[in-house]
Amino acid sequence: MDASIEKYLQKYAEPEVLKRKKIGHFQQVIVIPSYDEKADFLKSLFTNIPASTRTKTLAIVVVNVPDDLHPNSSPYKSTHALLKSCCEPNCLIIDRVSKPIPRKMGVGLARKIGADVALAYIRDGLISTPIIYTTDADAELPKDYFLSNTQRDIGAWLYPFKHQSKDNTLENHAICYELHMRWYVDGLRRANSYYAHHTLGSTIAINAKTYADVRGYPKRNAGEDFYLLNKIAKTAPIHRRRSSPLVLEARASTRVPFGTGPAILNMPENHEDYTSYNPKVFEALALALKHVSDPNTQISLPISNALETLNFTQKCRDLNTKQRHQWFDGLKTLRFVHAMQEHYPDIPLLPMLRTKYDLPKSDLRTLLAYQRNDENAHLIDLNKRQLSSL
Question: 3-170+196-265 in CATH: which number?
Answer without folding.
Answer: 3.90.550.10
